[in-house]
Amino acid sequence: MKRRDNEWIDHRYFRTYSVAARLTAAVSDPYTHLPGVESLTADGDILAFIAPWQSDTLVHKLARWVADDMFLEDTDGPYISKHDLGLGKNRRYLPVDLCLVAYGLSSAPGFEVPPPDGYYENVSTTMKVWRESTNVANACYDYFLNDIRVSQPYEVLLEAIGDEVFHVVFRNRELMFRLNQFLAELVQEIEPEMLTDTPELRKQFTARGDRLRRSKPPARAQRAVFFRDAGLCVICGVDLTGRFNILTAKNFDHIVPLAAGGLNDVTNLQLLCQGCNATKSDSPTGTSRTYPRFVAHPNPKPNAPWK
């Protein structure tokens, strides 16, 4: 059967792991690593996160947020130098422009960073230090805000980075738990007045307005979680594939319960057997940190050196 392009990701790995690392750091200090995130509840932007079972998951959204902030930080430098053979000199570019070229979204960088601008200051009788002015950074900032950020290729670039980051981190259930735990706190901070004033937001909540409505995971979400968790209960490890016992029921559990502000999002699902699901219930205990190995360890002792 011919491969369908919408089922595959063409990884370019431009900052994929850097964005993933910042998402990981954000779980312990979200307001530092996700600047401006407090606006989600203040401005009602939380609505974009709570619609059930979006293909554009929580991780996709936060990855785009982080990538955009990193590109914004780049406007202060350092910049990337490329040697121009035709002119015999180096040109400086913003990483975002080179990234657009690398992803096939631009034929060439659209902006050349101006030459360094500043002056040497005497700090001692034998030493001078270069003091850079803000002129170059301001020019880069204006270009990024007025040309890059409003462009369609940049939106496509952020979507591609979001897909790559999701592909890399989705298997990490602990990270999924922590990110969803943070969003759950924001959901619980939604004021009743906001629900009253925003009908589109209100219909996502129960009649009491204390949690999101329960919504059955669609088949695509169930398949994604089933294969990510290898058809095993993530807590006790029992086989839920049905190959050996067709009576073993599989349950798709909200890692952060709806009662605790959890989202109806594929990143907030895990595979449990019926017994473990009943034990967990609405307890916000999260998920396990154990995963099946791809290759068996040659020594069963956890701290023993490899042979």
Low-confidence stretches: none
- The helix/strand class is mainly alpha
Radius of gyration: 24 Å
Query: Helix proportion of residues, in percent?
Result: 25-40%
- Please state roughly what percent of the residues sit in beta strands, choosing from under 5%, 5-15%, 15-25%, 25-35%, 35-45% or over 45%: 5-15%
Strand order of the largest sheet: 1-2
DSSP strand count = 6
Q: Span between N and C termini?
A: 43 Å
Mean pLDDT: 88
SSE order, one letter for each helix or strand: HHHHHEEHEEHHHHHHEEH
Question: What is the approximate shape?
Answer: globular
Biggest sheet overview: 2 strands, antiparallel
What's the tally of helices? 13
Describe the structure.
The protein is mainly α and 307 residues long. It has helices at residues 16-26, 30-33, 39-42, 47-50, 58-73, 95-102, 135-148, 152-169, 173-188, 192-197, 199-202, 219-228, 274-280, and strands at 80-84, 89-93, 118-122, 128-132, 250-254, 269-273. The strands form three sheets. Strands 1-2 form a two-stranded antiparallel ribbon. Strands 3-4 form a two-stranded antiparallel sheet. β1 (80-84) and β2 form a beta hairpin. α1 crosses α5 and α5 crosses α8 (152-169). The two termini are 43 Å apart. The model has no long low-confidence stretch (mean pLDDT 88).
What's a concise summary of this model?
The protein is mainly alpha-helical.
Which structural traits does this protein have?
307 residues; mainly alpha; two-stranded antiparallel sheet; two-stranded antiparallel ribbon; 13 helices
List the helices and strands and how they pair.
Blueprint (H helix, E strand, L loop, with lengths): L15 H11 L3 H4 L5 H4 L4 H4 L7 H16 L6 E5 L4 E5 L1 H8 L15 E5 L5 E5 L2 H14 L3 H18 L3 H16 L3 H6 L1 H4 L16 H10 L21 E5 L14 E5 H7 L27
Antiparallel strand pairs: 1-2, 3-4, 5-6
Helix pairs in contact: 1-5, 1-8, 5-8
